[in-house]
Amino acid sequence: MADVLLAPLGAFVVYLALVAGLSGFGRLLAGPTQQSPLKSSVYAGGEAAPQRPAVPGYRPFFVIALFFAVLHLGVLVLGSSDLSALAGVYLVGLALALVTLILG
After folding, report:
1. What letter does residue 52 receive in the DSSP assignment?
2. 36 within some domain
3. Closest of 104, 50, 95 to residue 74, by C-alpha
4. Does the predicted model carry a pTM greater than 0.85?
5. What do you get for the CA distance between the two ends of the chain, in Å?
6. The domain containing residue 5 runs over which residues?
7. What are the CA-CA distances from residue 39 to residues 16, 33, 35, 46, 50 (Å)?
8. pLDDT in tens, 19-29
9. Do 46 and 38 touch, CB atoms closer than 8 A?
10. Cβ atoms within 10 A of the Cβ of 28, count?
């Protein structure tokens, strides 16, 4: 029995049956549903929903994500290198890339 639970396919089937059973039990506990306009309306804490989008786009996110990606990967490369002149040149290039990302 332990071999079946440790095998990926066996564990998947067991967990799938467990989730299906719990989901069915939850539906029994919930009782019958009745549709109403209040259930399908947007809840905003009692305030009217804003008319304009909250986020103008993903560009600021991508700039920050690229900044941290360059920073973390650069530090990983520097951490795995030795103290040499080439590492210093790499560090200067990394600093220039980060300044370029900050200034846009």
Report:
1. S
2. no
3. 95
4. no
5. 59
6. 1-30
7. 30, 10, 7, 14, 19
8. 999 999 999 99
9. no
10. 7
Q: Can you tell me whether residue 84 is helix, strand or coil? A: coil
Of residues 95, 73, 91, 93, the one with CA closest to residue 82:
91
Kindly state the helix (H) or strand (E) to which residue 81 belongs, with its residue range: none
In a domain, 38, yes or no: no
The confidence score (pLDDT) of residue 23 equals 95
- In one-letter notation, the amino acid at residue 70 is V
Task: State how far the Cα of 17 lies from the Cα of 39, in Å rounded to an integer.
Answer: 30
Query: Is residue 76 included in any domain, yes or no?
Result: yes
Calpha distance 87→97 (Å, rounded): 15
Q: For residue 68, how many other CB atoms are within 10 A of its CB?
A: 11
Judge whether 46 lies within some domain. no
Q: According to the model, what pLDDT value does residue 55 have?
A: 65
Cα 16 to Cα 22: distance, rounded to the nearest angstrom: 10
Which parts of 1-104 fold into alpha helices (H)?
2-6, 8-30, 37-40, 59-79, 85-103
Domain count for the chain, please give it.
2
